[in-house]
């Protein structure tokens, strides 16, 4: 069994480039076209998209994203990110968010009828760039993870709860220790995140964890702090926020989570679109827009 994870479309609905540089509509369309051309045996059981579907969470952006996702050759499930809005998810993506009434308005749900179990948890905090685990979601997750203690399980979130080493993105994660304690009650679990715009593979409190590369805007991997000795005067004058605040216009990419026996292997895959990797550019909004 295979699951494809894609992430971070940042699609605008007003025709503008995202962060003044990225044609995210084209990136999404190229990604969908790539998957439509795969052979039957190459396709996954389903797709999971780990958040930031629409830049600014606008209805217009979601309408474009919904049209694209519903062209995919397999079912698709989605996770909210910090740029998303829960009300639009529940209203516009009913098929992609099978949320039960006991946890609404949080976008949390499970997919139980496959050889790999999927648990989606909502780590978005309205108005915040960083994420966390609310008490409601934590209590829900404690119950859900205990239902199939032996079954290989993928837990999907937008925000990674661990330190990445990219200072601009390491803003903290609410109740990270509680999340680790819950996940460690399961014997075969992997944490699959978005948000970072680059692929990472790590162990966090003994839990295998990955972050998915993006459909749009490949993160510059830069470990410098905002005030580090290697920051140039030009960067400081341009309000450099530390590593993790700039991107290249790279090829879309995705992860394949593949079950072999009771072991889940994760493969990093690039979608060749001929991107020029220009940049790095800052994640900078248009004048008058909120950061």
Notes on the protein architecture:
- This protein is α/β, with parallel strands linked by helices.
- The chain has a single domain (2-282), classed as 4-Layer Sandwich (Purple Acid Phosphatase, chain A, domain 2).
- It is built from 6 helices and 16 strands.
- A 6-stranded mixed β-sheet has the order 4-5-7-9-11-10, with helices on one face.
- Strand 2, helix 2 (59-69) and strand 3 form a beta-alpha-beta unit.
- Helix 1 packs parallel to helix 2 and helix 4 packs parallel to helix 5.
- The longest helix is centred in the first third of the chain and has 13 residues, at 24-36.
- The radius of gyration is 18 Å and the shape is globular.
- The N and C termini lie far apart (40 Å).
- The mean pLDDT is 95.
Shape: globular
CATH superfamily membership: Metallo-dependent phosphatases
Number of domains: 1
Strand order of the largest sheet: 4-5-7-9-11-10
What's the tally of helices?
6
End-to-end separation in angstroms reads 40 Å
Helix content: 10-25%
Low-confidence stretches: none
Number of strands: 16
CATH architecture: 4-Layer Sandwich
Radius of gyration: 18 Å
Query: How much is the average pLDDT?
Result: 95
Order of secondary-structure elements: EHEHEHEEEHEEHEEEEHEEEE
What is the CATH topology descriptor? Purple Acid Phosphatase, chain A, domain 2
How can the largest sheet be summarized?
Answer: 6 strands, mixed
Overall CATH class: Alpha Beta
Structural class designation: alpha/beta
